[in-house]
Amino acid sequence: MTFLPSKKRLAHIVYESDDSASKNFDLILLALILLSVLVVILDSVQDIHQNYGTFLYWLEWFFTIVFSVEYLLRIWLSNDKPGYIFGFYGIVDLLAILPAFLSLILVQSQYLMVVRALRFLRILRILKLPEYLREASLLISALKSSRAKIQIFVGSVLTIVLVMGSVMYIIEGPENGYTSIPRAMYWAIVTLTTVGYGDISPNTDLGQFMASIIMLLGYAIIAVPTGIVTSELTHAKNKSEKSDRHQFKICHGCSLQKHSPDAIYCRKCGTKLESPE
Amino acid sequence: MTFLPSKKRLAHIVYESDDSASKNFDLILLALILLSVLVVILDSVQDIHQNYGTFLYWLEWFFTIVFSVEYLLRIWLSNDKPGYIFGFYGIVDLLAILPAFLSLILVQSQYLMVVRALRFLRILRILKLPEYLREASLLISALKSSRAKIQIFVGSVLTIVLVMGSVMYIIEGPENGYTSIPRAMYWAIVTLTTVGYGDISPNTDLGQFMASIIMLLGYAIIAVPTGIVTSELTHAKNKSEKSDRHQFKICHGCSLQKHSPDAIYCRKCGTKLESPE
Amino acid sequence: MTFLPSKKRLAHIVYESDDSASKNFDLILLALILLSVLVVILDSVQDIHQNYGTFLYWLEWFFTIVFSVEYLLRIWLSNDKPGYIFGFYGIVDLLAILPAFLSLILVQSQYLMVVRALRFLRILRILKLPEYLREASLLISALKSSRAKIQIFVGSVLTIVLVMGSVMYIIEGPENGYTSIPRAMYWAIVTLTTVGYGDISPNTDLGQFMASIIMLLGYAIIAVPTGIVTSELTHAKNKSEKSDRHQFKICHGCSLQKHSPDAIYCRKCGTKLESPE
Amino acid sequence: MTFLPSKKRLAHIVYESDDSASKNFDLILLALILLSVLVVILDSVQDIHQNYGTFLYWLEWFFTIVFSVEYLLRIWLSNDKPGYIFGFYGIVDLLAILPAFLSLILVQSQYLMVVRALRFLRILRILKLPEYLREASLLISALKSSRAKIQIFVGSVLTIVLVMGSVMYIIEGPENGYTSIPRAMYWAIVTLTTVGYGDISPNTDLGQFMASIIMLLGYAIIAVPTGIVTSELTHAKNKSEKSDRHQFKICHGCSLQKHSPDAIYCRKCGTKLESPE
């Protein structure tokens, strides 16, 4: 049929996002994903489930079928089939449709609802747009290059939580809600992160004194991850900017790339530099 | 009459703030705005409403009439009437007087009180002063240039909230206060942002373990927006300083702009530099 | 008498801290200040007050007399008497001794106890040591130079608090604890700053949705003051370091100070530079 | 016997981590440490203690004996015996085995459990790996070089806590839970650090107003430690990077050290530079 696009054109629409057809495909898909997530959320509210449960059930199946068609389409169109199926996006796409089919086989389907929420991960598709990719990779590389510092920080936090949890378990004891070291550690995390539910809180004088110390610690050490991320981001920004500024002047004599913006001659071989524009 | 200032002079007083008359106009207006906001706040306190309700009611009308006169004056004096009326400040000025007039027509006027609070936005007029404008625009441009990073951050936060909310809804269930996914998501936001009211808090062991993870996540990822804003501000500061330092010396021989502040001859072509003042 | 130091020597001991006698004076004074603060704190605990009340009362008078003698000594020794008396430290020193004397005259002396706590401000004397003075002035100048940005930030926070407080007062109403706009604003501050006591918390669905927005706002905008302070501190640090690095090479021909660290000849007049060491 | 490694080889396995045998030793030790910590934690949970108490008791002794052997081995193999025994790691290693032995002698052995938790500090051994050592020393030197600023910050926080605690004790009084100044100071710390348990919260209008101020203060001054740490880290990063980049090229003619990475001739005396590798 002449109405249908060729397989190559279809693959372009599905996998790229640089012309109007492929961009519309992405936008419609995104809207469907958001709607399907909304269905899962609304279905969990008692009132809505009782009144519109059947309607939401069929809507759920509608989205499942649409996403299944899309999933099969992506496998069919992909040049690197195993790369897609076992890659991050392939698994996310599968997780979005699997729970509905499993609910037909399994009886206790209520636990599949959690996995339905993983459908939200599909929104990460938006990150495939070039402008986001660059920013996200900047963030991730910033975090990666300070991995050792972050591990030390996490280790310190866990040590504080364990030691302070144990100490509070001894000081306050089960009669004040600190029924075990794990629970006391839960309290220590609630306190160190400055969440402070108040479901468990110290009642003895010594306990309140120890709690004050852990609070001040938590208040202070939040500066460490912030400092790490900020210094990495500032560094990455300066670096990317410097390379932006200097990359356009290339010596044709010796291929040296990074020239001072006002250089006229190559500082290495003396060849006259040409402007890139 | 000779007592009244000319329309041009009046427009200057109302719209500019560079001489004593126009500065006084701004200050008196600001005081009136603050007083009118105070009236709205005081009127909401039961004791004060019962004792001084009538007085506050007439005060409210006094401010409404003053602001209406000012609004009409601004329209009359503006060179670009639609620009003012449909601009940010025009709409804010209108919103400050509209509720009072609408309360005459509508019966359920209590809901108009919210809109009365929007009157506080008029204080933003202070930002029209040149020294604030520059700083605010620096902040806004810093936020704008890291828009993509912020969107990724907000997306991640919402994904964490949805997934963790759903998981906690399954783990804790309605018997522990997690009555629906939206409510569990509300809890996840309360926890991730380290607010921690304690109106809903996990009771099961697994729930407390999951809550600990979301708390530590919230404690850590606050570093990301901070890092973004800081690196942008540091960058903007460096940039504005560099341009401050170098902008004034331009070589008339080769048009090279960025000269060291104490340079006497152009470093590129040897022409003697002239001072801009 | 020959045992007593001269007035000049005494003034040195009291006002300076560069030899052992003056340093010991500062340390003993600091210990006395800390002990006097401890007395005030301990006296507030019921058990301790009942058992040791009389002892603490006389201890209180001991400190008051010591500090009074020190206060009079400082006035007598000062070269600029009004400068000391009406300066920051003079007022703090007076506030530390005044409440005790006033309690003899006034009947309701319990309210004077608050002012007794102001005695703790005397610890700021430690900041007079040169190493602290430099750091503190760096912090203060960093905050000062970003005053306009901080004012905008505080203005935004107050606007959010007022608008969100009013909105929540309408949505939740007095039946959920939001009894007036001021109380709703108190809740908004508790939430925006991520403190989250839970003494007032939203119960309606719409209220919880609005609360989620204000929480996320609070979580995000904390990045702004952090960014401002950090960028100012980084800037101040770079500046002070640069001036440290360059200050030692001075051209004897034209008195130009800031030379590149490896410069051999003055870039302005060609005189050969000499090393400062 | 030929099966046993020499003392020198054993010392290498125990103290270094640069070949497979010594790395495996470290990993097995780390696993044992983690397991022994887990035993302490699990033993504190009522259900587990009642069912598996005896098993955990013998497991505890197993770890104690293993760690005792390791401790004695380390002393025997060390070249600097007092340096190990009284150093940080020696004391931590001793604290990990001491409580079990003391429980044989002492009756009230339950208080020794806290000290058992100190065993977790042994995990810090992981920091002896070269890659962590470098990062940790960077963090510590960053904190050290801003010690004066941090002391000023801590001093300010304690002053705010004392003054605000005293003020709230007077305003709210014992009838609202502020039973003494120490307790009011505990509340002030809970509030300033934005933890906000809600076990004590202000009830009077004036108290809520003061609480709002302390919350906003806490929300704002968290920017100060963050700013300090960030500016130090950024500074340390720039410095270490600069020295990385420049350290390897030294001119043999004039001993100038900092050359641009691609420089071929010394920019000061024209001597040809030699590569360090």
Automatic annotation (TrEMBL), chains A, B, C, D:
Q: Where in the cell is it found?
A: Membrane
What keywords tag this UniProt record? Ion channel, Ion transport, Membrane, Potassium, Potassium channel, Potassium transport, Transmembrane, Transmembrane helix, Transport, Voltage-gated channel
Ion transport domain location is 23-240
Look up keyword Cell inner membrane and say if it applies: no
Q: How does it sit in the membrane?
A: Multi-pass membrane protein
SUPFAM superfamilies linked to this entry: Voltage-gated potassium channels (SSF81324)
TM helices/strands, residue ranges = 27-45, 57-77, 83-107, 152-171, 209-229
* The protein, known as: Ion transporter
